[in-house]
Write a structure and sequence with these properties.
Necessary for normal cell division and for the maintenance of normal septation. With about 200 residues, the chain is an alpha/beta fold. It is built from five helices and seven strands; from the N terminus they run E-E-H-E-E-H-E-H-E-H-E-H. The protein has one domain: Rossmann fold (3-Layer(aba) Sandwich). The structure holds guanosine-5'-diphosphate (GDP).
Length: about 200
Amino acid sequence: MKVISADLEVVAVKPEQFPKDRRPEIALSGRSNVGKSSFVNTMLARKALARTSQRPGKTQTLNFYSINEAFYFVDVPGYGYAKVSKTERAKWGEMMENYFSNSECLKGVVQLVDARHAPSVDDVQMYHFLKHFEVPVIIVATKVDKLKKTHVPKHVKLVKQTLDFDDQDQFVLFSSMTGQGKDDAWGAVRQLIQI
Ligand code: GDP
């Protein structure tokens, strides 16, 4: 995929603010520090498009990045902070539910998990949350460069088993360090948005 333009076009917290142009959307979700910004920057071949890690207390927004004026990557707030209050957690849940149940243009979600470890309780919950809304998911297992090649199959198995991975979903091994998986990830995204 040749990325000609990638611009933050809409920042939204509620459905009325979502873009109205009906272009397909792919949301990007993951625990803080999983490598989401690095993933986006690798995919778009940009040095620093995505904002750096969100921190608790910062306004939680849905950021719609228009790609080639053809579709959107929607950066959704990270989850899994240890110190997030109950109120904040509830707000996050409400916003995500609003988005997943109202966005007619959402074609799928890239959910990032760290290839090195079993997915966390939050990762598993998020995956099941997405399955509940019947959203197709692309699991992108990041930082695969940090694994010994011979250990990779064992880690894939652990990640899939822990998530109770649905074989209808796609699974991509990824490294923003080496670029491994970039073409596979684009293939998976394009399949969902049909371009
Ligand atoms: P975010 O909080 O999910 O947006 O995570 P970042 O993209 O900011 O990455 C968090 C940390 O992990 C940074 O120190 C990155 O350099 C590192 N990182 C991200 N992706 C990879 C990867 O594929 N391989 C390695 N080795 N490090 C990575």
